[in-house]
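stage 2 :: seqdesign
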């Protein structure tokens, strides 16, 4: 696989290469400066060696001059010679130290120093003889061999090699400035060369990267505009740098967005619900093809027209108020029912779900046709009303006849007849309760259910309910326990008595023989809590949340003995009073139904 430089590597090179150039420059300059220091030290050393040899030459000539012909007696004294000898020896020590690293030069210095030491000894002998013997013929004869040896030692000190060393070191000292000048020129050349190379590389790399990055960024920016304008994008970049990879990802994203847009459009085009968007002026901005199915208008016919033109006359104000509310609460969708006029003039019922978008200043709506559902609902209400009305009147007559027979007002019956009459009375009463339950449910659903609220003493409700079921409870050997209370609730006496009666009747149905049902009330603050507690089998945990649904019956021995509407009626009555109802139960340990109602105005909280 071919390796391609990425944008990251190019930027890294832009940083690293100058650093490398600077390191090279520093190393080169350091080497040249070190070389310059070495040359300087070498020049200083050569200068000192030259000066040392010159000093020795001068001292030797001065000493030789002092002792020659013995004409300068006043100079040949111990005090006059001592500084010369000390300086003589110090100069040799310095030369020996300066040539310690050069074996050839060091050996010549050592040879010269040996000869110089011998010359010093000869001078001491000559000076001593002059002081001791004077200038007699015998003294001169004694000193003559020493004079010859001193002359010989002088030549041994200033040998041609020794003097040649002086010339060589002098040349080194003289050439040092030229060498240092050359080093300085090299430093300038290296610094300028690396500076020019570095500037050229950085400029080229910066221009290359800027051009490359700018072109690709411009292409990405243009692609975003093309995507927003639904125009084909530029061909995808095939390089392996980061911006090219970003362009490749952008193309994939664009493909996904286009695919999602196609699916969304297909979903809208094939939806059976009428979906549209409406601007602030109430005009249709976008409409799906379902408009023709719902209203008979094609989408092109609706675009630019006002929604208000298609509303039923009596719904205009309510719909406009709903749209104002939707725009004020943009975070939540609102659902409302209304009516629309079709192209053929017929009116249809619809449910509208709408939500406002502050960013686009549009309201998005979904209209669902509920005409058939509304018609079925109205038909159901008519049928229920008709059936319950037509059944309740003759059923009431039959119930009265059974009641007359049961009380003996139409004559005495034998035991068998009495049993038939009691069975008929129970069944007709049960049918009457079922019809009343159905009527109440329909009234509550239609909003026509009315309650006549007033202060109601809870003691009367509990006692009345217990009296109503006393005979039934005694027959099943169930004990009814009613707690005394002074609580007062705010509600409809008849509706609350019926609510409690349904709860007690339900408890009797599930309480076994020998069981107990307790009726109690407790007031706390502005709420009165009524309780009907039994010792029956209890309610399974998974049924507690659904126990108040219509037609729901708990599995058990008495499953088929009721209509499944009693507890649903209780919940509707509790809700109608502004209260709530719930059940607390543990399977096998009975159940307790609780109703919380507003406290009456004539009773303060305990």
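stage 2 :: out
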């Amino acid at each position: 696989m071919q390796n391609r430089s990425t944008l990251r590597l190019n930027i890294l090179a832009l940083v690293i290469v100058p650093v490398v150039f600077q390191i090279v420059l520093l190393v080169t300059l350091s080497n040249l400066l070190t070389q310059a220091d070495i040359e300087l030290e070498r020049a200083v050393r050569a200068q000192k060696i030259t000066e040392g040899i010159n000093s020795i030459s001068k001292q030797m000539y001065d000493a030789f001059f002092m002792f020659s012909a013995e004409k300068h007696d006043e100079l040949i004294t111990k005090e006059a010679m001592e500084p010369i000898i000390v300086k003589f020896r110090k100069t040799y020590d310095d030369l020996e130290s300066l040539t310690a690293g050069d074996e050839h030069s060091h050996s010549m210095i050592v040879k010269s120093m040996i000869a110089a030491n011998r010359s010093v000894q000869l001078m001491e002998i000559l000076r001593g003889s002059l002081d001791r013997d004077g200038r007699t013929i015998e003294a001169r004869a004694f000193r003559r061999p020493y004079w010859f040896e001193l002359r010989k030692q002088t030549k041994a000190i200033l040998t041609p090699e020794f003097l040649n060393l002086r010339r060589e070191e002098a040349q080194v000292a003289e050439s040092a400035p030229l060498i240092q000048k050359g080093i300085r020129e090299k430093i300038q050349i290296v610094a300028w060369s690396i500076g020019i190379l570095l500037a050229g590389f950085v400029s080229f790399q910066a221009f290359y990267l800027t051009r490359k990055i700018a072109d690709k960024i411009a292409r990405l920016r243009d692609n975003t505009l093309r995507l927003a304008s639904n125009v084909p994008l530029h061909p995808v970049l095939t390089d392996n740098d980061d911006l090219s990879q970003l362009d490749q990802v952008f193309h994939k994203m664009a493909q996904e967005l286009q695919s999602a847009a196609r699916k969304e459009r297909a979903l809208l085009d094939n939806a059976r619900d009428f979906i549209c968007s409406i601007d602030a002026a109430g005009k249709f901005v976008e409409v799906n093809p379902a408009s023709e199915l719902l209203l008979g208008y094609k989408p092109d016919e609706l675009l630019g027209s006002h929604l208000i033109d298609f509303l039923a006359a009596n719904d205009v104000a309510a719909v406009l108020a709903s749209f104002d509310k939707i725009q004020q609460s943009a975070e939540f969708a609102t659902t409302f029912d209304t009516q629309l006029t079709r192209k053929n003039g017929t009116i249809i019922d619809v449910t509208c779900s709408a939500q406002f978008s502050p960013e686009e200043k549009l309201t998005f709506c979904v209209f669902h046709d509920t005409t058939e559902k509304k018609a079925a609902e109205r038909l159901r209400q008519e049928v229920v009303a008709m059936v319950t009305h037509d059944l309740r009147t003759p059923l009431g007559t039959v119930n009265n006849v059974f009641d007359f027979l049961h009380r003996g007002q139409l004559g005495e019956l034998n035991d068998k007849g009495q049993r038939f009459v009691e069975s008929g009375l129970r069944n007709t009463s049960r049918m009457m309760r079922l019809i009343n339950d159905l009527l109440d449910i329909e009234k509550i659903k239609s909003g026509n259910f009315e309650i006549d609220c007033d202060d109601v003493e809870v003691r009367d409700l509990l006692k009345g309910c217990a009296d109503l079921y006393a005979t039934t409870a005694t027959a099943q050997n169930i004990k009814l326990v009613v707690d005394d209370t002074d609580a007062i609730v705010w509600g409809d006496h008849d509706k609350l008595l019926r609510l409690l009666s349904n709860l007690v009747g339900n408890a009797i149905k599930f309480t076994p023989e020998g069981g107990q049902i307790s009726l109690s009330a407790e007031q706390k603050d502005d709420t009165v809590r009524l309780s009907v507690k039994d010792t029956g089998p209890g309610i399974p945990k998974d049924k507690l949340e659904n126990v108040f649904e219509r037609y729901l019956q708990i599995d058990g021995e008495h499953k088929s003995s009721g209509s499944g509407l009693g507890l649903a009626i209780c919940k509707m009555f509790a809700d109608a009073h502004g209260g709530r109802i719930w059940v607390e139960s543990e399977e096998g340990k009975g159940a307790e139904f609780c109703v919380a109602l507003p406290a009456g105005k004539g009773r303060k909280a305990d």
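stage 3 :: structure notes
- The radius of gyration is 63 Å.
- The first helix runs from residue 7 to 67.
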